[in-house]
Design goal:
31% of the residues lie in helices and 32% in strands. It is an alpha+beta fold and 180 residues long. The protein has a seven-stranded mixed beta sheet. The two termini are 18 Å apart.
């Protein structure tokens, strides 16, 4: 885990991001986590669009993709119109064949640092309503449940209901370790 490096994703990473997302979806389904992600739901165009309007970050361990996440600067579909005080983490995903245990938490911390670097003081995310283990994981990472969103539109699927979580007071949390 010493070699975990994060960097912004680029066009050449698109196929790897799709493989990572599909692998994470298969991992969830194999463990009975249904209703959240399905293999084949998102394609390269999805990640290309996010990269054009937000950020996609990649984590590598020994040159292999260990995980990734999307960082948006607004999310009106879930949160409604908001002042520019938060970054919104989406699709936090880990390749469990590459990444060591605890990598997901490290990626979340890296996302928090990135948001803090921009001067924003909050990180917001949502997770599928009813996914108690994931909600507990985020709460253990310092997030608090602040609401629920029924019927949020999904890229490539039926609208779903989500639990909204937030972590505030990011002041002084910079220091994202990037690869060069």
């Amino acid at each position: 885990m010493n070699d975990l490096r994060v960097r912004p994703a680029v066009e050449a990473d698109l196929a790897g991001l799709v493989r990572l997302r599909d692998g994470a979806a298969r991992w969830m389904l194999a463990r009975g986590i249904t209703g959240q992600w399905q293999p084949g739901e998102l394609d390269e165009d999805h990640f290309r669009r996010v990269m054009a309007h937000g950020e996609v970050w990649l984590a590598e361990d020994g040159g292999r993709i260990a995980g990734a996440w999307e960082l948006w600067w607004d999310d009106e579909a879930a949160w409604g119109p908001q002042p520019p005080v938060a970054g919104y983490v989406h699709r936090l995903m880990v390749d469990r064949e590459v990444a060591a245990p605890g990598t997901g938490r490290l990626l979340l911390t890296a996302a928090e640092h990135r948001v803090a670097e921009t001067g924003r003081t909050r990180v917001r995310l949502d997770c599928l309503a009813g996914n108690a283990p994931l909600t507990t994981n985020y709460r253990d990472a310092g997030y608090r449940v602040v609401g629920h969103k029924e019927g949020k539109p999904q890229p490539g699927g039926v609208p779903k209901s989500f639990t909204l979580l937030e972590k505030a007071d990011l002041a002084g949390r910079t220091g994202l370790r990037r690869s060069r």
